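> Could you send the Prp19 complex subunit Cwf12 prediction when you get a chance?

Sure thing. Input:
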Amino acid sequence: MSSKQYVAGSKPVEKRQRNIKNINSVATCEKHRQSVVKDLSKKINKIQSAQLPDYQIRDLNDAINQLMREKHAWEVQIHELGGINYLYRKAKLFADDGEKIGEVDDYRYYGRARELPGVKELFEADMTFVPERLRKQEMQHRQLDAWYYGYTPLEEESSLQDFEKDISNQRLNRISKEKPNSLENWNPIVIEHVPAREEVENILLERRKSALLHRLV
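Output:
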């Protein structure tokens, strides 16, 4: 839509404001948001057409993404002014919500844009590695200290144990209230000896030997 005033039939229609943050009226924001939604509905329906050439599909898809960003900006402003929280409701407004390639970019492809040369191949490719790769990148950028890996300073270990004990007691009390008979025969497991790594390796080795001998017999 042009930023200038245009005429629908014989009735002039007010242009949408560019500086959304400067609008202090919820009613005005709602009106402009509805105008964006109407534009989006028309363009999303149009981009499904098999008659359009590729260059028009690309232009339409870019326009839809731009309008989606504008719609989001109006919804943020409406919420900040005390109006409806469209950000929370997430109602389905369009038959086609678009699809993203991976998790990095918010750019979406609608209708026939998913069939464009180059785009179609990306959608068909296996993108399952992307979330895992992003997770690893996020972990690398974090400032992880010894606490994250479970290494507690000796002077703070007793306070941590007291905290864990307090949390355990709170959970037991909650369980006993919700299910009074569930703790009658319950006894805490006491581990007197935690085997060292060498002991665990020897135990596993003996089990492998036993399994191998059992196969040979």
